Amino acid sequence: MPSLSEVYRAHPVHVHHKNLDFNSLQELPESYTWTHLDDHTVINSNNIMKESNSSVPVIDLNDPNASKLIGHACKTWGVYQIVNHGIPISLLDDIQWVGQTLFSLPPHQKLKALRSPDGVSGYGLARISSFFPKLMWSEGFTIVGSPFEHFRQLWPQDYAKYCDIVLQYEETMKKLAGKLMWLMLDSLGITKEDIKWAGSKAQFEKGCAAIQLNSYPSCPDPDRAMGLAPHTDSTFLTILSQNDISGLQVQREGIGWVTVPPLHGGLVVNVGDLFHILSNGLYPSVLHRVLVNRTRQRFSVAYLYGPPSNVEICPHTKLVGPTQPPLYRSVTWNEYLGTKAKHFNKALSYVRICATINGLFDLNESTKSSGLDRF
Ligand SMILES: O=C(O)CCC(=O)C(=O)O
Ligand SMILES: [Fe+2]
Predict the structure, then answer these.
(1) Which among 298, 329, 352, 374 is annotated as catalytic?
(2) Alpha-carbon distance values, 322 to 268, 357, 358, 362, 375 (Å)
(3) Which of 143, 240, 246 to mutate to test the pocket of ligand 1 (most atoms within 8 A of CB)?
(4) What is its EC number (predicted)?
(5) Residue 251 C-alpha to ligand 2 middle, in angstroms?
(6) Among 267, 300, 303, which residue has the most ligand 1 atoms within 8 Å of its CB, making it the best to mutate?
(7) Is 298 a residue of the active site?
C-alpha cells in the first residue's frame, strides 16, 4: 500500500514559493490583491445573529445524544465544533506553540525546510495556491509521517522536543478521529460490522493522516487579501484547532459565509469530500476559507484524516436503494487526491455518477459540464 507521502508525490502540484517574508511588506502587493472579495458581507455568529440556525453547532461529546446532534450538524452544515472531547488543553497549547515558534523563525531558516516540488511535507505556500491567480496571505507547514528531518533543519539543537509534541498530537488525534468517524457513521445507521476495513478492533488503525500547521500574519489591507481561498478538504474529516483569532468561515447554503468563532479548548470538525461520498451525498463537504486580520496573527492546526490510501470508498450500501441511487463511483484516497490535484474544487463532479432509466453512467464521461456540481 502506498504511503500518503508517496501518493502526494505521485500527484505533484506546482507551487512557486514567492516572497514569504510577510513582515517586510508595508502595503498589500498587487500579487496578493483579490478583486472578487465583494461577498465580505458575512454573518459573524459572535455578534450579529444569535439564532441557532445561523451559527455552527457546538456539540458536547459527553452528551448521550452526541451522535444524533452530530448527524444533524453534518447534514445541515457539514461542520460542527466539539467540546469535552478529551484532548488536554495543554496538548492543544503545545501544538499551537510548535506552529507559532516555527513561523516566527527568520525566513531564511524556514526556507531550509521548504517543501520539495513533488513532496508534501515541509514549509511553503498552500498547495491550493496553484489554482488561483492571486497569492494567499498565509504560510504553512505540512507533516506527513515523521517531521524529524525537517525539524532537524529548523532547530538543530532542540528538534526532539518539537518532534515529541507532534507525535503525541498525532497519536491523540488519531483516536479522536476514529471516535468521530463512528459517531458520524452511527448517525447514518452504519455500525461497526458494516465497515470491514476499520480493522479488527474497529478503530481505523490503518487510517492515514496529515497535520497542517497554518499561519496568517497580520495584514496591511485585510479587506482585499485572502488567507486561504475557498476549498473543501479531500479527507473523511478534518479536526481543526484555531487560536483565539477568528478568520475561518464556512459557506452555508442560502445564507453565505459564516464565521466560525474561536472557542477556547474547542475543536472544529469539517466533513471532507470522502465522507460526502461515503454518505452518498447526505453530508456535504463544507466549503471554507480564511480571512485575515490587520493587527493579530492567526494560527491554526488541521488534522487531516482519511482512509488507508488504497481502500475503495463508495456510497455505503445501507444508504443506497431503489429510490436512492449511488451518486458517486468508488475511489481510493490515492485516486481521489490525483483527481483533486487536477480539478481542485470540481473533483467531486468527476467521480459523480447519475442514475437514468437505462442504468448508471459516469457523469463526467457523458456531460462534461454538470449542473450537479456543487461549487
Ligand atoms: O486555518 C483554518 O482555519 C483552516 C485551515 C484549512 O482549511 C486547511 O488547512 O485545510
Ligand atoms: Fe481546509
Answers:
(1) 298
(2) 35, 12, 14, 18, 27
(3) 240
(4) 1.14.11.15
(5) 12
(6) 300
(7) yes
Q: What is the rounded (10 degree) CA torsion for 236, 59, 292, 140? A: -40
Q: What does the angle CA 275 – CA 79 – CA 184 come to, to the nearest 5 degrees? A: 45
pTM given for the model: 0.91
Mean pLDDT of the chain: 88
The ligand 1 atom nearest the CA atom of 140: 9
All domains of the chain in start order, with CATH = 4-362 (2.60.120.330)
Cβ-in-10-Å burial (0-12, 13-18, 19+) of 238 comes to: buried
Q: Are 168 and 132 in contact, with CB atoms under 8 Å apart?
A: no
Inform me whether the pLDDT recorded for 319 exceeds 60. Answer: yes
Residues around ion ligand 2, judged by CB within 5 A, are: 233
> Residue 241 CA: which ligand is closest?
1
